[in-house]
Amino acid sequence: MNISDVARRAGLPVKTIRYYEEIGLVRPARGANGYRAFDERDLHKLAFIGRARALGFSVEDCRALLRLYEDTGRASAEVRQLTRDHLAEIDRKLAELQQMRATLARLVDACAGDARPDCPILDDLRDHAFQARSDVE
């Protein structure tokens, strides 16, 4: 299979597949003409990586998951722990997003949004910018 065929079947852009090859996640054979020759195993790896990336796993997590997937003697506890760690990171990011949302909602509610120049949103951004600078000093 050539790269465009495997890209279509795996649901990944060609550029992404080239990147995954560059960093060693997949290693397709090369034909006598120098072109990549992907087989079914490469296709399954790429689909696996695509699904893991869609779930937010990092490239390094994907590397670890592939290693575990290919290790038939693996303990599922390692896979579970890697996934639990990823889930905890998602929960942390969600908490940050909820805090950002609450702050923005409070600022929107505080702003009259009329023709006057005073704006609590801009005041907050300014005040926190000065506070951040003084925290560094």
Describe the structure.
- Residues 80-110 form a coiled coil.
- Residues 1-68 form the HTH merR-type domain.
- Keywords: Coiled coil, Cytoplasm, DNA-binding, Transcription, Transcription regulation.
- This protein has 137 residues and is mostly helical.
- The protein has 6 helices and 2 strands; from the N terminus they run H-H-E-E-H-H-H-H.
- It folds into 2 domains: 1-58, Multidrug-efflux Transporter Regulator, Chain: A, Domain 2 (Orthogonal Bundle); 75-137.
- The protein has a two-stranded antiparallel sheet with strand order 1-2.
- Strand 1 (29-30) and strand 2 (36-37) form a beta hairpin.
- The radius of gyration is 24 Å and the shape is elongated.
Give a nutshell description of this structure:
It is found in: Cytoplasm. One of its GO terms (biological process) is positive regulation of DNA-templated transcription. With 137 residues, this protein is an all-alpha fold.
What are its keywords?
mainly alpha; Multidrug-efflux Transporter Regulator, Chain: A, Domain 2; 137 residues; single chain; DNA binding; transcription regulation; 6 helices; 2 domains; MerR-type_HTH_dom; transcription; cytoplasm
Which outline best applies?
elongated
The overall average pLDDT, rounded, is 93
Number of strands: 2
Largest sheet: 2 strands, antiparallel
What letter string, H or E per element, gives the SSE order?
Answer: HHEEHHHH
Contiguous helical run count: 6
CA radius of gyration: 24 Å
Backbone structural class: mainly alpha
* Residues in β-strands, percent: under 5%
Distance between the termini: 58 Å
Total domains, how many?
Answer: 2
Question: Which range best describes the helical content: under 10%, 10-25%, 25-40%, 40-55%, 55-70% or over 70%?
Answer: over 70%
Instruction: Give the spatial strand order of the biggest sheet.
Output: 1-2
Residue stretches low in confidence (pLDDT < 50, at least 5 long) are none
Organism: Oceanicola granulosus (strain ATCC BAA-861 / DSM 15982 / KCTC 12143 / HTCC2516)
GO molecular function, one term: DNA binding
Keywords: Coiled coil, Cytoplasm, DNA-binding, Transcription, Transcription regulation
GO cellular component, one term: cytoplasm
